[in-house]
Amino acid sequence: MRGTTRRCNDLAAGLDRIALQQAMKPGAARNALDCAFWDLEAKRAGRPAYALAGLAAPKPLVTALTVSLGTPQAMADAAHAASSRKLLKIKLGRDGDAERIAAVRAAAPRAELIVDANEGWTADNLAANLAACAAAGVTLVEQPLPAGHDGALAQIARPITVCADESAHDRASLAALAGLYDAVNIKLDKTGGLTEALAMADDARRRGLRIMAGCMVGTSLGMAPAILLAQQAQVVDLDGPLLLAKDRPDGLRYEDSLVHPPTPALWG
Question: Distance from the CA of 132 to the CA of which of 24, 58, 82, 159 falls in 20 to 30 A?
Fold first, then answer.
């Protein structure tokens, strides 16, 4: 409660988005405030948030749809039901993943597949699981090994793009990814907002890392600022609202494989 009172006092005293970056640590709470500041600045200026950020007007993007971890047959059924979509994100991270990804590929032969192993593989099965994903035509694997125990990635040839998720939070975490990862999943709840996310994307590109724009499960309001980040990403995974029973009013428009930019009634 004292922390909440202090933040309210800071806001009353004129705390702005730039000062917020030092006043709070990266995380979901700062993300909420940072993105609220962006929205407030846009409304006060009568200009869209993308213009305030010096970005081009956002366009609709192909976003992944998640297939949850289950038995090979259950995952194949889910993949078949979504096989018309352009991009599917397949949750793995347990024994039998080679059978799961093969079953998914057979059920969705034309979709691009990316995989999220959720830190579930080990140094012993890493190479075999990556090979199984490569054989299934997977284009990217997220976080195959536990954060802090991912050194084995430097010891093998990586047949497909390997993307850091739990091993990457904000700009300060990027240096440790060298030689281990080919891409980084940037999520606003990890970076603490759009301000740090955009700066992190710039830094990641300078380091030769590809960009994935990801999300936690959340409403369209949580996804809307990430649409700006996602304009410069090679892989977009912003399906959070599709995993909810009910979204908020004026939510993002999802049409087939596309997610459309937010309207001013939602954010920005």
Answer: 82
